[in-house]
Amino acid sequence: MGDPRVLRFLQLLARRGFVQDQAVDLGGVHKKLFRFGAQGTLLQRNITKQWWDAMVLQQPNTFCVECPALTAVPVTTRGTDDSQSTDDSPPSLKLAVLGHSLSSQTVLRSSLISDCSSGYLSSLQLSNGQLPVSVASIGQCYNARQGHFDDGDDDSSKLLKNGLYGTHFLLQHYAPPVSVAQTFDFWLRIRLRWWRQFASNPSKLNSSSVITESTEEGLNGKTVITYDFPWGTDPVETISNQGDSQVRAMERETGVSHQGLYHQKAFHPHLIECQTSLEQCISVYLTDAFRERQLKKQTANQKAQDSRLVLQLHPLLSPYQVALSVTGSRSREVRVLAEHIAKDLRSEGVCVLNPTGNSDSMELQYRRNDELGVPYTIVLSDQTLDGGVINIRSRDTGLK
Question: The Anticodon-binding domain covers which part of the protein (predicted)?
Answer without folding.
Answer: 321-398
